[in-house]
Design a protein that fits this description.
515 residues, alpha/beta, five-stranded parallel β-sheet, two-stranded antiparallel ribbon, 19 helices, 8% strand, elongated
Length: 515
C-alpha cells in the first residue's frame, strides 16, 4: 500500500514539473529556445519506468487505488475536454450572432445610402423633365442646405429628429419685436377673450389670472379636476394665443423612468429613439417666445418616477446648470446645440400637466405638488359674450420682464406675511402640518404676479393657502378634526377679516360636510 503512494507521489511530482516546464516554454516565454512539452518521448518512457519499478510491490489494495486513480484521472481529463468544448461552442455561437448583427447593421446602412442615391436619381429625372418643359428647377438660396444635404445629415446623425430641427431653424431669425405698452392684466384679458371668441372656451378671469401668475411663479403648472372641464384645452388655447402651438405628450401607464419621457439609445441601430417631448424641448432652445409642453394625463404613471430628473433640475438656482444628459459619447454628427452629450432646459419652456382624480390614476405626491402651481377645475365654463381677439406674439423676455416688474411693484406686505406666519403656527399646532420655505417662496412670487394680472393680494394668498396647505388636509382623518376646522375659519376671520379667503372657506366647509 505504501509502495503505491510512493509511486503516486513520484508520478505527480514529475507530471507537474513537466507541466510547469510546458507552461513556461509554450506561454510565458515561447521565445526562450524550447517550446512544447520538453523531451516528450523521454518523459512518457520515464512514467512507464516508474510503473514497472513500483508495480510488483503494489499489493491488492495498491492495485485497487491504482485503478480508482486512473478512472478519476480519465474522468477529470474528459470533464476538462468537455468544458472546453462547451466554451468553444458558446464562443462560436456568440461570434456568429455578433457577426449577424454587424452584417444586418451594414445592410441597413447600405439600404439607407441606396435610398439616398435613388432620391438623387429621381430628382435628376424630374429636373430633366422640367428643363424639357422650359421650367427651371428650384434651387435653394445661398447659405441654405439643400434637401439632399438635409437628408444625408439626418441619416448620419444619431438624433435624426433633432438634426431635422437644426436644419429647419438653420439661418432663421427668431427674434420678436416687443408688444408696446403690454401689461399682465392686458395679457389675461386678451387671452380670455381669445379663448372665448376664437375657440369657444370659457374661463373665469380669476382662472386665467391663476394660470398666468402660476407660470410667473413656477415652471410646472398642474391642472386637476374631473374629465371634460377644459384642463387640456387651457394650455392648448394658451399656445394658440401666443402663436406657438403647445406640444401635447400623452403619458402612458407603463412609464417608469426618464427613458419613456426622453427616449433611449438603441445599441443595435446606433440611433437614439427620440420622443416628441425631447423634440419639443430641443426646439424651444431655438425659439425666443414662450413654449408650452403638456404632459396629458400625467398621473396615469407615477410622476416622481419618469419626471424626477426635471423636478430636481428645475429647483437649481442657477439656470446654467439646467442640463439633461442624453448620451455619454460624442459624435461629430450630433445636433448643433448639444454640449458633451447634454442639452440645456431653456428658460422659455413651461410644463403643464393635466390630472384626473379617479381609480385609474396614481396620487400625485407632495414632492410634485410642492414644486408646482396647482389649479383645480371643478365645473364647466359658463358662456359669455366676448369681443373678437386675435393671437399675440409676445417675446419670452418681455413676459419675464413683466413678471420681474410685478415683484418690484407689488411685493407681499409685511403685515400679510406676519399674519400668514401666525396662520402657519396655528396649522402646525392644531393639525401637525407644516409647509417649508419652498411654499413661502412661491407665495412671494405668485401673489405679486397675481396682483399685476388684476387680482388682489388677499385672493392670491387665499389661492396659495388653499392649493398648497389645505390640500394636504385630505390625508388627515378629518372626522376627528371638525372642531379644529371651525377654529381655522375663526382664525381666518381674526387675521384677514370676514368675507375673505372664499376658496379656503369653501374647501373647509366641504371637508366638514363630507365628514
Amino acid at each position: 500500500m505504501s509502495v503505491y503512494f510512493n509511486y503516486l507521489g513520484k508520478l505527480l511530482i514529475q507530471f507537474f514539473r513537466d507541466f510547469g516546464a510546458f507552461f513556461y516554454h509554450a506561454i510565458v516565454c515561447p521565445w526562450g529556445g524550447s517550446s512544447g512539452w520538453p523531451n516528450i518521448g523521454y518523459n512518457f518512457k520515464l512514467y512507464n519506468d516508474y510503473l514497472k519499478a513500483y508495480s510488483p510491490e503494489f499489493g491488492p489494495l495498491g492495485w485497487i487505488f491504482f485503478v480508482l486513480f486512473a478512472l478519476i484521472f480519465i474522468g477529470l481529463i474528459g470533464g476538462i475536454g468537455y468544458g472546453l468544448f462547451l466554451l468553444i461552442r458558446k464562443y462560436i455561437k456568440f461570434a456568429r450572432t455578433e457577426f449577424d448583427k454587424d452584417a444586418l447593421r451594414k445592410q441597413v446602412e447600405r439600404l439607407n445610402y441606396e435610398l439616398y442615391d435613388m432620391m438623387k436619381e429621381r430628382d435628376k429625372i424630374l429636373e430633366l423633365k422640367m428643363k424639357s418643359l422650359g421650367i427651371d428647377g428650384k434651387r435653394p438660396p445661398e447659405g441654405e442646405a439643400s434637401e439632399e444635404e438635409q437628408t444625408i445629415d439626418e441619416i448620419q446623425s444619431r438624433f435624426p429628429k433633432l438634426s431635422h430641427v437644426d436644419n429647419e431653424y438653420n439661418g432663421k431669425d427668431m427674434s420678436l419685436p416687443e408688444v408696446p405698452d403690454l401689461t399682465l392684466a392686458q395679457v389675461c384679458e386678451n387671452f380670455r377673450n381669445f379663448a372665448a371668441s376664437q375657440m369657444g372656451l370659457y374661463y373665469t378671469i380669476d382662472t386665467i389670472r391663476h394660470v398666468i401668475a402660476g407660470i410667473g411663479a413656477a415652471k410646472i403648472v398642474i391642472l386637476e379636476g374631473i374629465s371634460g372641464t377644459g384642463k387640456t384645452s387651457m394650455p392648448y388655447a394658451l399656445g394658440k394665443f401666443l402663436k406657438n402651438d403647445a406640444n401635447i405628450c400623452s403619458v402612458q401607464p407603463n412609464w417608469k423612468d426618464r427613458s419613456e419621457l426622453l427616449g433611449y439609445y438603441n445599441e443595435f441601430t446606433k440611433k437614439f429613439n427620440e420622443s416628441e417631448f425631447l423634440r419639443a424641448l430641443y426646439t424651444s432652445i431655438y425659439r425666443k417666445d414662450t413654449n408650452i409642453i403638456v404632459l396629458d394625463e400625467m398621473n396615469l404613471a407615477r410622476v416622481e418616477y419618469y419626471f424626477a430628473e426635471f423636478l430636481s433640475i428645475l429647483e437649481m438656482p442657477n439656470p446654467n446648470e439646467w442640463n439633461i444628459e442624453l448620451i455619454g459619447s460624442r459624435d461629430p454628427h450630433d445636433p448643433k446645440l448639444f454640449k458633451n452629450g447634454k442639452i440645456k432646459v431653456p428658460q422659455n419652456v413651461f410644463f403643464f400637466g393635466t390630472a384626473n382624480n379617479d381609480d385609474s390614476t396614481f396620487t400625485i405626491s407632495d414632492k410634485v405638488y410642492d414644486r408646482a402651481i396647482c389649479l383645480f377645475f371643478d365645473n364647466k365654463g359658463i358662456a359669455f359674450e366676448a369681443p373678437f381677439q386675435g393671437p399675440m406674439e409676445i417675446p419670452y423676455e418681455q413676459l419675464q420682464h413683466l413678471f420681474d416688474e410685478a415683484l418690484e411693484k407689488f411685493p407681499v406686505s409685511e403685515k400679510t406675511l406676519e399674519n400668514f406666519a401666525l396662520l402657519d403656527d396655528f396649522v402646525i399646532k392644531k393639525f401637525r402640518l407644516a409647509f417649508g420655505n419652498r411654499i413661502l417662496k412661491q407665495l412671494k412670487q405668485f401673489v405679486p404676479c397675481f396682483v399685476a394680472c388684476g387680482g388682489t393680494e388677499l385672493d392670491g394668498i387665499d389661492f396659495i393657502f388653499t392649493n398648497k396647505i389645505l390640500k394636504k388636509f385630505e390625508s388627515l382623518n378629518i372626522g376627528f378634526l371638525k372642531q379644529e376646522l371651525k377654529e381655522l375659519n375663526q382664525m381666518l376671520d381674526k387675521l384677514f377679516g370676514t368675507n375673505t379667503f372664499p376658496m379656503a372657506r369653501s374647501f373647509i366647509d366641504r371637508m366638514i360636510r363630507m365628514n
